[in-house]
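Researcher: Let's do a round of design. I'm pasting the structure tokens now; please hold your answer until I've finished.
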């Protein structure tokens, strides 16, 4: 080991959580190292090719996970910037009520140890850093904001503007989806027709690499080592302090020592890493005296809907501009448990439909469907279940078990959403549920809370069991809410990063 292997802060993972902490610590006196298992994602023509992304799975990790006897290749992406390199740029704040206990069909969605008010300033900072555009005041479930959005929303293209009018005619309250895209006059976005699930070749997408990691690296105190897989964390003899991360860098094993460790490898990999780091003193893994690490995995209940019009073609180039939350807390009559959010999905194309439609479907039919469809994403809350687990198999691979919750409410929401969409003039609506093979909204596996007996992290995401370990990716979520997670991960990580800068590293 050399002195170059000793840092004040070691951040594991360069996604939203890790990137936001790095951004907060940039320009301070602390020597900060980000360790990232993946490379920088290459800019290449394949970035925007549905064939490469969806058929060849060019960017998807080659690893396989198990779920009991079943083996599958999960929708995991390991690059600098993490999953945001592929995300759909929908940047929602959770609703104020999502931070309290909320009654659902299958039970109570637990309260968070912090309130919406605690995160509001950090939501604002996250929106600023990601360049989020939106319009406040239209979504009836929207939480209070200190200030309007800095950037105007992305306007609907004609097909979608017509749908928005037809939704309003039904008495609904459609609103422009908050999006992190450098759009409009002088902006980088070329409306390439991809975006959701594709990397952006021209950096128009506000992702964790462009908005957090790269700006942090402009400061001399922050460094990044990519293609460095963190295998385990090492503690001192007391077991209270983490002293090193054991990494495998291009086949070579070495230790990186640090004063503070900020884990942000994503909800599945952070839980796995803590379990891989088990010792005689911590037989269930680090940060796990409560036995919650690797439990309560959540992933949202999601279904894709394809709305088809027999004649009208949909040539929309930027499809993710519209959402409704009218059934976020109850059904259309204002009765019953929460149903969820409805938002537009990235535009489906023929190669994408190859995996989604039966193999016998002729190409010409898939092409016709892709040209005529408007594509939607129906999302409902997934409740934390103790037996929804991430575990490490003896061969080192990951085993994921997902006990679905709230599926009755989700199915009701899919039926309701289909009727709403049909009434906008699209008589055929086809549904395709998402499974755990696509753990895009993974969260909850290292939950934070007020009680060390039932949570792994305190309200500032510090491990109760260790003096110098923080976990800031989506694993800290005690509940999943029913809107997209990235902005909430960013807000809490900025809050934790600020705390480290002003209270811990002084
Ligand atoms: C196709 C797709 C579309 C999405 N669309 C949206 C959307 O529109 N809006 C939204 O809010 N959310 C969206 N999401 C979800 C969102 O991208 C994630 O919730 C968010 O990026 C998670 O951030 P994170 O920091 O928790 O983890 P990650 O982004 O997973 O970051 C973890 C990082 O750690 C690295 N890592 C993992 N293990 C190790 C290890 N052992 N050693 C070193 N490094 C490691 C990974 O390579 C990765 O870079 C989408 C996700 C996908 C896949």
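Researcher: That's everything. Go ahead.
Model: Designed sequence:
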């Amino acid at each position: 080991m050399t002195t170059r292997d000793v840092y004040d802060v070691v951040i594991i993972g360069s996604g939203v959580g890790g990137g936001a902490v790095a951004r907060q610590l940039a320009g301070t006196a602390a020597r900060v190292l980000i360790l990232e298992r993946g490379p920088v994602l290459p800019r290449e023509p394949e970035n925007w090719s549905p064939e490469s992304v969806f058929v060849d799975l060019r960017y998807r990790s080659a690893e396989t996970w198990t779920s009991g006897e079943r083996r599958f290749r999960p929708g995991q992406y390991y690059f600098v910037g993490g999953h945001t390199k592929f995300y759909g740029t929908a940047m929602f704040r959770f609703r104020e009520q999502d931070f309290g206990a909320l009654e659902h069909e299958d039970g109570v969605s637990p309260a968070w140890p912090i309130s919406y008010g605690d995160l509001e300033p950090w939501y604002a900072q996250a929106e600023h850093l990601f360049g989020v555009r939106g319009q406040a005041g239209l979504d009836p479930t929207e939480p209070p904001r200190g200030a309007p959005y800095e950037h105007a929303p992305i306007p609907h293209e004609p097909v979608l503007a017509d749908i928005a009018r037809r939704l309003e005619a039904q008495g609904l309250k459609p609103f422009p989806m908050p999006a992190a895209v450098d759009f409009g006059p002088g902006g980088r976005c070329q409306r390439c027709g991809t975006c959701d699930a594709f990397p952006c070749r021209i950096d128009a997408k506000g992702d964790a690499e462009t908005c957090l990691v790269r700006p942090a690296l402009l400061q001399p105190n922050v460094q990044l080592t990519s293609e460095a897989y963190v295998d385990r964390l090492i503690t001192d003899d007391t077991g209270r302090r983490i002293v090193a991360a054991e990494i495998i860098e291009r086949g070579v094993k070495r230790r990186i020592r640090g004063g503070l460790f900020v884990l942000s490898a994503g909800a599945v990999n952070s839980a796995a890493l803590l379990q891989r780091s088990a010792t005689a003193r911590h037989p269930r893994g680090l940060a796990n005296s409560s036995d919650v690490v690797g439990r309560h995995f959540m992933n949202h209940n999601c279904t894709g809907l394809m709305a088809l019009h027999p004649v009208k073609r949909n040539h929309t180039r930027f499809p993710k501009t519209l959402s409704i939350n009218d059934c976020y807390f109850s059904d259309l009559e204002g009765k019953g448990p929460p149903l969820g959010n409805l938002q537009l999905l990235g535009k489906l194309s023929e190669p994408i439909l190859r995996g989604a439609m039966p193999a016998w479907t002729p190409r010409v039919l898939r092409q016709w469907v892709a040209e005529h469809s408007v594509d939607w994403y129906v999302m409902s809350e997934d409740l934390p279940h103790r037996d929804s687990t991430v575990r490490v198999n003896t061969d080192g691979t990951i085993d994921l078990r997902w006990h679905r919750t709230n599926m009755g409410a989700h199915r009701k929401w899919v039926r309701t959403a289909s009727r709403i969409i049909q009434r906008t003039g699209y008589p055929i609506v086809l549904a395709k549920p998402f499974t755990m093979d696509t753990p895009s909204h993974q969260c909850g596996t290292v939950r934070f809370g007020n009680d060390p007996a039932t949570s792994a992290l305190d309200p500032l995401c510090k491990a109760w069991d260790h003096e110098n370990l923080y976990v800031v990716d989506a694993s800290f979520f005690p509940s999943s809410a029913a809107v997209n997670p990235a902005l909430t991960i960013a807000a809490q990580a900025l809050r934790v990063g600020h705390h480290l800068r002003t209270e811990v590293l002084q």
